Amino acid sequence: MGSQVSKQVERRKAVHTEKKTLADLKKLGEDYPGSDYHPSDRKNWMSELNPDKLVINKVVWPGTHDSATNKIGIPCITRPFAQCQSLSIYNQLEMGTRVIDIRVQEDRRVCHGILLTYSIDVVIKDVKKFLSETQSEIIIFEVRTEFGHEDPPEFDKYLQDQLGDYLVPQDESIFEKTIAELLPKRVICVWKPRKSPQPQRGSPLWSAGYLRDNWINTDLPSTKFDSNMKHLSEQQPVTSRKYFYRVENTVTPVADNPVLCVKPVTERIHGYARLFINQCFSKGLADRLQVFSSDFIDKDFVDACVGLTRARIEGKA
């Protein structure tokens, strides 16, 4: 018992030290090209930046981690241990989110580990509603079979039937195209099954290798911040690669953590998205940043990504 208590005390000290490290770094400034920009209409921010000039590989895509968890589990009982977003998929898209991360199990219900929420049909309905209300917004829609579960039967056919003419076919040439050149196709759907065959070139769906990341499972904010930077440094510039690379501005509870609810843990890093972009410039890595995701996404996170995107279009970044 004594060793366990000692371990928890050391863990709390480590968290405090790492939070202070980021807070001290933030005091030095978090400006970067485009950091003062705020879109007048987040729901249509891609349209606002001009689809004829906005090249796919120049976009800094604001995304959400475990996107469809706003109603997961049982309120006040199991939900705090798995909820990573408080908004519906539609409200996230309306706020400016453009990368959605969905995990499913065998019966097409969305899940996070063993906890369940609504059917994927609810997600699709929200996506289609958003698409029907906008004209030039492109979405990266990632769907994966959750770890420990089997692939939903014929799920690739389901996605194709549901999203139909919106789907951008798997073709590496799109990375050098503008948004206007993709239209009226508007959904880059990345399907990541665990056992089923991966989508092939020319398919309406994209295979797992086109949306990559290096997940670091930690509750320590500075450790995650530095690890994100290290893995980003190992990537090619966005103009040289033919896949999307994601950095996640999140930390998550781990087994030996005295705090097991998602929100208080992820808040340790939540406010440092702009600092991360600032440090990308300081370290010469800004040309590698592409998909940037967050738990509990908010307007400032969206604006941070959109501002850098605008600066790239204007040749300032």
UniProtKB/TrEMBL annotation:
Domain spans labelled Phosphatidylinositol-specific phospholipase C X: 50-191
SUPFAM superfamilies: PLC-like phosphodiesterases (SSF51695)
GO molecular function annotations of the record: phosphoric diester hydrolase activity
GO BP, one annotated term: lipid metabolic process
Source species, domain of life: Eukaryota
Record's compositionally biased regions (Basic and acidic residues): 8-20
Region named Disordered: 1-20
Descriptive protein name: Phosphatidylinositol-specific phospholipase C X domain-containing protein
